[in-house]
Amino acid sequence: MKLIRNIPNGYKLFRSVSIFNNYLNDINKLRDAGEKEEERALIAKAVKQWIDNVFDIFDVTCNIKGQENIPMDRPCVFIANHQGYADIIVMLKAAEGKQIGFVAKDALQKLPYFGKWIKALHGVFIQRGDAKAALRSIQVGVNELKNGYSMVIFPEGTRSHCHDMGEFKAGSFKLATKAKVPVVPVTIDGSYHMFEEREIISSGATVNMIIHEPIETADMDRHEAAELPERVEKTIRDGLKEFE
Fold first, then answer.
1. What is the spatial distance between Cα 208 and Cα 243, in angstroms, rounded to a whole number?
2. Torsion of CA 58, 61, 64, 68, to 10 degrees
3. Is the pLDDT of residue 172 over 90?
4. What's the pLDDT at 77?
């Protein structure tokens, strides 16, 4: 019954992704030509058009605090808690005007429309259960960052489906420390209302976000790098308390 009830809104969501098809050839041409700055700008333009459409279709309200903390002139790693699938669209909304790719499980690579667009945004797919493959994927992400492309990672590794937050996996932070780019902690609350709460794609969700101050990693020593996961996790957890 839930599957049937999800068909109308699921169709709207998948259809909305076709907006990207108007930009894909030009994005690929810029990528092949090595025009990184122009490519990032076009990705940001395509994403804005899609996100505005999704927010309109599903009547999503996103209250964002601290948007000025996003480094717009250089790559960074956004570290966020993960309540639901909608975390992807609200992160894209929060970073409007900036290219961001996602570290995603490899199963999403085969998802129609979405798989090719995660790749087009310079996302990285990670194979769960294979430590060596995961390390290789992290290195791909590091290379993307060094080339100027920003990334988003959800260190819980899975959705919490609610307000609560799971433990962070420390290995996720190597993405930033190896590339020596800033970490931007992000607190997200309410995204699970869009699907996970009832397992039905729903309209009218309100999502609250806090974009915390960036943490520089370029000059961190080993001790500071080792403490970074706990520091970021605490920052995000403290942010969640503001929404209780």
1. 8
2. 70
3. no
4. 97
Complete DSSP assignment for 11-71: HHHHHHGGGGGGTHHHHHHHHHHT-HHHHHHHHHHHHHHHHHHHHHHHT-EEEEE-GGGS-
- Please give the backbone phi and psi of residue 123, each rounded to the nearest 5 degrees, phi first: -75, 165
Q: Which helix (H) or strand (E) holds 136?
A: helix 131-146
103, 126 contact by CB (below 8 A): yes
**Which tops the pLDDT comparison, 3 or 149?**
149
E strand residue ranges, 87-211: 100-105, 124-126, 150-153, 183-189, 206-211
C-alpha–C-alpha distance, residues 56 and 169, integer Å = 34
Q: How far is CA 226 from the centre of its chain?
A: 23
pLDDT of residue 1: 60
Q: What does residue 206 show for φ and ψ, rounded to 5 degrees?
A: -115, 125
Residues 111-134, mean pLDDT to the nearest whole number: 81
- 44/172 Cα distance (integer angstroms): 24
Provide the 3-class DSSP secondary structure of residue 123.
coil
Give Dmax (Cα) for the chain: 54
